[in-house]
């Protein structure tokens, strides 16, 4: 069983690693002497939705945060191994982590809007990253809001407080905020877990539209969602006390015909069915 | 021996009258806490009332001139408090000018850049400074600050090192722990998710502080300064030792910092002096002294209530 799993992972690597957006080799993450992730190997091809599923606490979010070095913000976390974004190691001394994060959008579990107007929220990052004229900023805001399918709902009240929006709208606003600085990849950490079914559907439709131009890594607890939107799936499970990628396969293969016992158990537990 | 079922039944039965004593339908806990609150508030109210009543003669005698008059000669029954109001405000302003940038700057460092455990150690150490008795600060002021100011500004021909500036600098040091620790609390109250979201967009740590943390902690930072100001206005003994206690020193231009290099008198240093004892025998003189206390209390209360209000009111989104 173990052999089969490794084979599966390797065969995927060789096919996709050449022009992979993210390539992760031997990633290990520890915090205060406890290993959170061990020997994670994953390649994520451009312009596809790469889903990450697995039981709670296995380290899915930690893995996601390694990709744009958001882990740096937690001093006790130690990361080792090779994480490459578009061929460059993200932990190379020449890489500016802030510039890296500007190229990789991040969507959190709970929408985090700033207590400002809608338009200020959309432009929050981009106006600090680039020197843009007022006119261009207005265009950027409209484009980002249109891309996040929020424009029609807020076009008449761009100067209203973003806190007045519904949670679903707030999450799309966060997406617009990330899209405004034209990121190459977008990392999403269970972006719909706080949303109602309708807002969830809106986000899922957006994900499918956005993958035409962006690479998306999506952590999800919702197997139905994984089935609907992802192209590839990795299942991160706890093995010997640390999270690791138990199996990587294209979406249908992993969900219909899981090879690894841990994945079978996770999928069979029923708790995460749509 | 009480079995489990007994206990459950007992709890169920006692839920209400038996367990919680009531008086005319109102819980005694609520009644008692209300009484204590009323006692505390009543004391402040009664105190204010006594001060108003005791100071009445001077208001009748001097009228508004008591606040705007620049001369205070108790032997000829002339009482003008303006030089002391000026001294108090000037000294507090100097203290605030010093403590605001340093205190808030230090708070930004501890709350945004120090790891949690070190932050706590630094915070506790700084809070210890707030516990140093103010007379000790006064002695340090006499020992170090007075001579230092005298030499530093030698070319302005200072009469002595006891100046409003000396008192202001000393007060600045004294209120620094208060400002810093309250500013640190204000900055820490900004949710971590807000910072993380900004960093996730690619903002640097500095940009995040400037664009997220400080604007959102703004009210708390103002509260920290106001509460520091409240302390500075009321501080007596340290100021008393280094301010020079020069009566009737009101500069022609009250906005001129040149006047900071002269001796002065504050409301608290006047009240802390021996004149208070002399005044007790003379109703008008006594009223004038109590009037000073009333002015001082009003100023301190205004700053403190303003600060508390800034702290309490929920952050309103700016649009």
Automatic annotation (TrEMBL), chain B:
Q: ABC transmembrane type-1 domain: from which residue to which, for each copy?
A: 85-307
* Location(s) in or outside the cell: Cell membrane
Instruction: Give TM segment ranges.
Output: 31-53, 84-108, 120-144, 164-183, 221-243, 286-309
UniProt keywords (A-Z) are: Cell membrane, Membrane, Phosphate transport, Transmembrane, Transmembrane helix, Transport
- Known InterPro entries for this protein? MetI-like, MetI-like_sf, Phosphate_PstC, Phosphate_Transport_Permease
GO BP terms: phosphate ion transport
Role, per record: Part of the binding-protein-dependent transport system for phosphate; probably responsible for the translocation of the substrate across the membrane.
**Single GO MF descriptor:** phosphate transmembrane transporter activity
Please name the Pfam families in this protein's record: BPD_transp_1 (PF00528)
On whether Endoplasmic reticulum is a keyword of this UniProt record, the answer is no
| Designated name of the protein | Phosphate transport system permease protein
Q: Per the record, GO CC terms?
A: plasma membrane
Q: Which family does it belong to?
A: Belongs to the binding-protein-dependent transport system permease family. CysTW subfamily.
Q: How does it sit in the membrane?
A: Multi-pass membrane protein
Taxonomically, the superkingdom here is: Bacteria
Q: Name the NCBIfam families for this protein.
A: phosphate_pstC (TIGR02138)
The protein's predominant localisation is: membrane
């Amino acid at each position: 069983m173990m052999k089969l799993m490794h084979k599966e992972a390797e065969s995927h690597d060789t096919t996709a690693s050449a022009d992979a957006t993210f390539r992760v080799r031997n990633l290990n993450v520890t915090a205060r002497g406890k290993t959170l992730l061990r020997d994670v190997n994953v390649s994520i091809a451009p312009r596809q939705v790469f889903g990450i599923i697995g039981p709670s606490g296995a380290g899915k979010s930690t893995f996601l945060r390694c990709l744009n070095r958001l882990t740096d913000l937690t001093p006790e976390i130690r990361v080792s191994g090779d994480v490459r974004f578009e061929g460059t190691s993200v932990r190379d001394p020449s890489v500016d982590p802030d510039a890296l994060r500007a190229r990789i959008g991040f969507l959190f579990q709970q929408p985090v809007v700033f207590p400002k107007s809608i338009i200020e929220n959309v432009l929050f990052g981009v106006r600090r990253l680039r020197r843009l004229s007022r006119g261009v900023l207005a265009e950027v805001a409209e484009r980002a809001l249109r891309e996040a399918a929020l424009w029609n709902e807020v076009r008449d009240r761009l100067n209203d407080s973003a806190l007045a929006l519904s949670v679903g709208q707030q999450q799309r606003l966060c997406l617009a905020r990330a899209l405004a600085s034209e990121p190459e990849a977008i990392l999403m950490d269970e972006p719909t877990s706080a949303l109602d079914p309708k807002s969830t559907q809106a986000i899922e439709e957006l994900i499918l539209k956005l993958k035409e131009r962006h690479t998306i890594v999506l952590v999800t607890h919702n197997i139905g969602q994984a089935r609907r939107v992802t192209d590839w799936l990795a299942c991160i499970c706890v093995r010997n006390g640390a999270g690791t990628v138990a199996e990587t396969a294209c979406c249908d293969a992993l969900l219909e015909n899981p090879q690894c016992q841990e994945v079978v158990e996770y999928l069979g537990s029923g708790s995460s069915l749509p | 021996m009480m079995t489990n079922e007994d206990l459950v039944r007992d709890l169920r039965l006692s839920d209400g009258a038996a367990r919680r004593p009531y008086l005319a339908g109102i819980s005694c806990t609520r009644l008692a806490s209300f009484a204590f609150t009323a006692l505390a508030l009543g004391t402040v109210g009664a105190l204010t009332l006594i001060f108003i009543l005791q100071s009445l003669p001077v208001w009748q005698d001097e009228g508004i001139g008591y606040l705007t008059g620049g001369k205070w000669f108790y032997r000829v029954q002339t009482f003008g408090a303006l030089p002391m109001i000026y001294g108090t405000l000037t000294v507090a302003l100097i203290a605030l000018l010093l403590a605001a940038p340093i205190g808030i700057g230090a708070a930004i460092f501890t709350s945004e850049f120090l790891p949690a455990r070190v932050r706590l150690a630094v915070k506790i150490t700084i809070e210890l400074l707030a516990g140093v008795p103010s007379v000790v600060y006064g002695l340090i002021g006499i020992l170090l600050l007075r001579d230092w100011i005298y030499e530093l500004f030698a070319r302005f021909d200072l009469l002595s090192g006891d100046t409003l500036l000396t008192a202001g600098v000393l007060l600045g040091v004294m209120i620094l722990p208060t400002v810093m620790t309250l500013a640190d609390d204000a900055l820490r109250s900004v949710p971590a998710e807000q910072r993380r979201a900004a960093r996730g967009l690619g903002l640097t740590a500095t940009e995040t502080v400037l664009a997220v943390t400080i604007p959102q902690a703004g009210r708390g930072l103002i509260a920290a300064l106001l509460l520091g100001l409240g302390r500075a206005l009321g501080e007596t003994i340290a100021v008393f030792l280094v301010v020079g206690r020069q009566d009737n020193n009101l500069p022609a231009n009250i906005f001129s910092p040149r006047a900071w290099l002269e001796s002065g008198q504050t409301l608290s240093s006047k009240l802390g002096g021996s004149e208070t004892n002399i005044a007790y025998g003379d109703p008008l003189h006594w009223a004038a002294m109590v009037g000073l206390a009333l002015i001082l209390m009003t100023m301190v209360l205004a700053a403190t209530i303003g600060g508390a209000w800034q702290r309490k009111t929920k952050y309103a989104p700016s649009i």
